[in-house]
Specification:
Rossmann fold, alpha/beta, 4Fe-4S, 10 strands, 4Fe4S_Fe-S-bd, iron, binds iron/sulfur cluster, 2 domains, globular, about 500 residues, single chain, iron-sulfur
Length: about 500
């Protein structure tokens, strides 16, 4: 951002002159409320402690209640839409089969896309990992002498640490999605794949904007805040030399790609500057236009409970005098495709429905996962990027299966979470205390003799153990639970007494 613009935007009198947004609804004065809980603490390659960050989120009741309610509302709207479509389950089956078919023939479809896209005038690049992706994009930007790039929301660029990389290279990135822009200004990652700032109260946003663009810190009115951001960001968007988008669906047969947004921000990024770069994961391929409607019907209904996104834009080639580049990124996807149990995660269309329904996600916030992908989809994807760092994540689930039930492409999410737990155990990626406890429990539970012998001991321990042995800092189990009252007799004892036989 140029100094001139910074100076102009930080002048509070400028934002107080807003024309229609400020006047359109009654300004809401912010109250003194709890500060926004921050995400997981990251310590290099050490395992992320999701439960620690979740505890801090829960300790902020206003944020927790708002987050839970907002996401549950999305889940309910999704259900309503789903019930309005008789063939919903058929659509899910179809979507799953199309994805499975495409992934099984991915090399052919990728080549088909490259051939057809090139014929359309698109320059296609291949990136094996995040570093290569960033280098390719930087090279394109350097060739066009780009200092400012506008960009629509893309989880792939989060994976690649794109913003941080470009900041070091002196290229300014401006997010065009409002939620993503809020997160950028607050120096936070998106907390949700569809609604990146959903964990923030309006007063949090007012604080961020007051700090960064000079808006009134006491005015948390949504219209006012949106208008402030619009006025602050529009000049930056109009003066950018390049635009970047992702791509929700890549059509091999036509060599085209499709973006779905509600704000039209992908179109802004793609159409304002003459240079358009699209960074897309290789798993986004589908065969062609015949298959597209299946996903378009499912995506927005699953994500936000709306029949369709406001903008479903098809990109076919560069406009006259412009250039269009597509960077197809692997970054671990080929490896995942070879994982017998975990390849179905590649079917994901990033709708966020599994997050909206997950009781752990709703009550702990996406940033508590300390990874690019949060919630149920994150639990099954993140360990493929770094098993050690994300080894705790598959335990952040109740395994209730709700994520699997809502997934529009029928990914067996909860089964994969359970498989990850087995996988982690097999690879020794379990904390020592848990490992010791599970080993002891395994031995007791696998021996009827030991199991029966342990019951009186357990009952006695429940009755007589000193309080501090259960409720202490080391025993996380005891933090939010009351120990049950020990029964007078077990079912086994009752059965033997009343039926006279061994159970
Ligand atoms: S795993 Fe399924 S429900 Fe979750 S984001 Fe992906 S497509 Fe949506």
């Amino acid at each position: 951002m140029s100094d001139d613009l910074h100076g102009e935007l930080k002048d509070p009198s400028r934002t107080s002159q807003l024309t229609h947004g400020a006047a359109s609804s009654e300004p809401l004065k912010s109250r003194l409320i709890e500060p926004q809980p921050r995400g997981a603490k990251i310590h290099g390659n050490h395992p992320v402690d999701q439960s620690e960050a979740a505890n801090r989120f829960i300790a902020a009741p206003e944020h927790e209640a708002m987050h839970d309610a907002r996401l549950w509302d999305l889940r309910q709207k999704r259900d309503k839409e789903m019930h309005g479509i008789e063939e919903w389950e058929e659509l899910r089956d179809l979507a799953s089969q199309i994805k499975e078919h495409t992934l099984s023939n991915l090399d052919d479809y990728l080549e088909m896309f490259e051939k057809n896209a090139t014929a359309n005038g698109i320059k296609v690049h291949w990136a094996k990992d995040a570093a290569e992706h960033n280098a390719i994009v930087l090279d394109i930007l350097r060739k066009h002498d780009v200092q400012r790039l506008i960009k629509s929301k893309s989880m792939l660029t989060e994976e690649c640490g794109f913003r941080e990389f470009m900041a070091k290279e002196g290229v300014e990135i401006i997010e065009t999605d409002l939620g993503e822009r809020i997160q950028q200004l607050d120096d936070e990652a998106p907390s949700h794949v569809v609604v990146p700032a959903v964990h923030k109260l309006r007063t949090d946003v007012a604080g961020v904007f007051a700090r960064t663009i000079g808006s009134d810190p006491g005015n948390a009115d949504a219209h006012y805040l949106t208008e402030c951001q619009r006025e602050a960001t529009r000049p930056l968007i109009l003066s950018a030399q390049a635009g970047m988008t992702g791509g929700n669906f890549v059509l091999a047969e036509t060599g085209t790609f499709v973006t779905c947004t509600n704000e039209g921000n992908a179109d802004l990024s793609a159409n304002t500057p003459p240079l358009h770069i699209a960074s897309i994961g290789i798993e986004k391929l589908i065969p062609g236009l015949n298959e597209l409607p299946v996903f378009v019907r499912l995506l927005s209904r699953s994500a936000l409970g709306s029949p369709i996104t406001q903008y479903t834009s098809h990109f076919r080639g560069p406009r006259e005098g412009g250039e269009m580049h597509v960077v197809l990124v692997d970054n671990g996807r080929s490896e995942r495709l070879n994982m017998e149990k975990f390849w179905p995660g590649l079917k994901c269309i990033r709708c966020g429905a599994c997050m909206n329904t997950c009781p752990v996600f709703r009550r702990s916030g996406g940033l508590s996962y300390g990874a690019t992908y949060a919630g149920p989809i994150g639990l099954i994807i993140d360990p493929t990027y770094n098993l050690h760092k994300y080894r705790n994540l598959p335990y952040s689930s109740t395994l209730n299966g709700s994520c699997t039930n809502v997934c529009p492409v029928k990914i067996n999410i909860h089964e994969q979470i359970a498989d990850w737990r087995k996988n982690l155990a097999g690879q020794g990626e379990i904390p020592l205390v848990k490992k010791t406890m599970m080993k002891a429990a395994g031995e007791v539970l696998s021996s009827p003799h030991l199991y029966r012998a342990s019951l009186p001991l357990g009952r006695s321990a429940l009755r007589h153990l000193p309080h501090f042995m259960i409720y202490n800092k080391l025993n996380t189990w005891g933090r939010h639970r009351d120990v049950p009252e020990a029964p007078k007799q077990t079912f086994n004892e009752w059965y033997r007494k009343n039926r006279g036989k061994k159970a």
